Amino acid sequence: MSCYVVGKETIDRITTLCLWVNKGSYSSIDFLEFVKKYRNSEEVDTQFGKLLLKMNIKAFNQRYEGSHKEDESIINKYSFENRTADNLQYLKTLMCFLYQCSEGTVPKMKLYKMLELLKNELAFKVIEENIPEFEKKEWA
Known about the structure:
Blueprint: H1 8-21, H2 31-36, H3 44-63, H4 71-77, H5 87-100, H6 110-130, H7 132-136
Helix pairs in contact: 1-3, 1-5, 3-4, 5-6
């Protein structure tokens, strides 16, 4: 299995999903509440994006034994930009990100588990939205 540090667009899209799109729409997961304990002077969305990057880099470093050289530089340079998408794109982005973070101890982290839960809830939403046959199937 390979692992890489995702790009800014991926981090922006997941941050947009978690903090703004998800807010009360189809999930009970409160990422804003989660990020409050890490609060500093930065905007909450930039701060959340940096937490995502740190988690991704941690997985990369555990996979490749600390070989990512620009850890702090990438994290410090990050600044959030809103990236809206449809739910199918959000799901695919989230699946890619979680795959890249599935190394070492990262899957045991609270943030990873919250994102996994959101992925599962979003997958069900995507099925409802994109597969008309789903509604036609017998409930029981």
